[in-house]
Specification:
The complex is a heterodimer of chains A (456) and B (184). In chain A, strand 16 and strand 17 (394-402) form a beta hairpin. Chain A has 456 residues and is mainly beta. Chain A contains seven helices and 20 strands. Mean pLDDT of chain A is 89; it is low at 1-17. Chain A has one domain (2-452): Porin. Chain B has 184 residues and is mainly beta. Chain B has a single domain, classed as Jelly Rolls (Sandwich), CATH 2.60.120. Chain B contains two helices and ten strands, in the order αββββββββαββ. In chain B, strands 1, 2, 4, 8 and 10 form a five-stranded antiparallel sheet that branches. In chain B, strands 3, 5, 6, 7 and 9 form a five-stranded antiparallel sheet that branches. In chain B, strand 5 and strand 6 (109-112) form a beta hairpin. In chain B, 20% of the residues are buried. The model of chain B has no long low-confidence stretch (mean pLDDT 87). The chains are: A mainly beta (456), B mainly beta (184). At the A-B interface, helix 1, helix 2, helix 3, strand 8 and helix 6 of A face helix 1, strand 1, strand 3 and strand 10 of B.
Amino acid sequence: MKNLAFTVFLIFSIGNAQNKQILYDFAGLPQTLLVNPGAEISNKFYVGFPLFSQVAVQGGFTGFSAYDIFADDGVNINTKISVAIQGFGKSEFTELNQQLEVLSGGFQLNEKMYLSFGYYQEATVLAKIPRDVIDLLYEGNSDINRQYSIEKLSARAELLGVFHVGISKKINEKWQIGARGKLYSSALNINSKQSTGSLATTFGTNNIYKQQLENIDFLLQTSGVFFEDTDVLTPAYYVKKMLLGGNLGLGIDLGFTHHFKKQWTVSGSAIDLGFIYNTQDVKSYSLKGDFEVDGFDLNFDNQDPADYWNDLEDRFNEEVVLDTITSKYISTRPLKLNAAVNYAFGKKLDNCRFDTRLGLYSNKVGVQLFSNVGSVHTYLAATLFFERWFSKNLQAKITYTADPYSFKNLGAGISTQLGPVNLYLLADNLLNLNNLYAAKSANIQVGLNFIFYDKY
Amino acid sequence: MMKALKLILGIFAILCFQSCTKPVDFDQIDDAEIKANYIVTQAYFDLVASDFLTEFGMEIPLQTDVIQAQISGSSQKYIEKIEFTIVTQNSFDRAFNVQIVLFDVAQKPIYTFNPTIHIPANSGEITTTIEIPKEDISVVFNTEYFSFFVQLIPSTDGSSISPDDDSTLNLKSYVELFLNYKTA
């Protein structure tokens, strides 16, 4: 039970739905190109430390925190569960996202163009849970005439490898644009595309109650999930699937940076505009129909006895059709949109201290917006940030983010450069450091690069 | 630069030393329970005079009907109580008894709902609730046949139901399952 509780805590407490608000446009880090391929990068070339150039874990649950349930405060756990359920919104979502950059590198092609490339592995689990489903499980269906809707019930899970190569090009002193092509190799995909329908118990006419499934339409697509022989599911199998042996797809990232005034900059990006064509190990399930039952109508006909149960079952199977589909399908990647505007100010940096780095000013303050657009869930996050370049070797950024998890998410990041060795550490939800269990989400990114500039 | 680095490292150190957790007790999960009630609609009937008469106009004293049902036992351990609610209406000048008996796969009676539902003559809506206590619930999950026995009580004056009688005997029912999900 303790393990179960800890697993629940992990699911509820890690991460933040792929918003990389601290990394975005931070310190000229090479990894900023992964959130905006049109970001300005000034290094001559860089190599990410294999398997450690970006380790990112994000996740969370918008409903309640582990501390809400497991606080050792003398209050009965069932009271705390009840309070948490009462605070449950119309729907809540949970997400766990993990990214591991396996290989990463980049270099200047010429004065105006920068090429970057690499390979990373990504795993995501996302589920959206409507309040009606929670109430149905927690209270039952004894609320007569209530429609328990499954409309917002949806989930997505995927495990994939991503090969990518991108170009960032300086058009002129004001404009920088970039694009990144991606080749996805998916080992596993689960996608509930649509869900409509409701369940209700209403007052009947023939009987006291009548029970209805109305307009049920549910599609669950999977690839790489159901196998007759599960012995094949070894770590080597998943590695092979993520290295071009899986279901393949294509994607593109687009981005720009524009200095529209001397100290003002606007930037934006669209990440993972792409799809995966699922052709291997596909098994999907479709459930459609309407059904109404008011009970068994006993006719007491001994000459022709009815087979009530099987008749009901047959009618259910006719009216609510479950299809198993093995045809190929396309799954779209969740699109991430970033936009930012910032104002640079403060001490104008001299060439002595910043001779090889971007930026004329030591401080930046601005606003960032992030949106994750997906079939399961779409949401918006807004961030205020302050970035300080202490020197060419040390930069820091502080963020304050409002998102569906929290309106008071304080994040911070530092990037240091000692010789060619660059180390960065980014984390958010720092206001919950005094009680990590109370955090509804968390987001940690750490990485090590070898970055070389024209001169030191 | 070193001053700034020291400052930042100092702040991180303070945050790290401060980062902690307030006391939590994951063992509380063993005390967690979720109580939910589920209503499932059940049998109903509308019987008329011809249902109690043979083709020769003789009264049929006992009518039976059977529902063969396979009940899944997966949630049995979470059920604390089962309540059958039966609502009857009778416009006949005759009284009836309704008895529900459960049979196992060998067609051996294993449980009889208690009490027998008595439906007086010319009675309006009567609601009867029959509770199956926790200790008897396992028996229900061995049930293969739900049998409904409708007994026509003989008249005190020896009269019989007329084929032209437009009276009805109506029964409606539902079952409410009281579940208590426990983690321990």
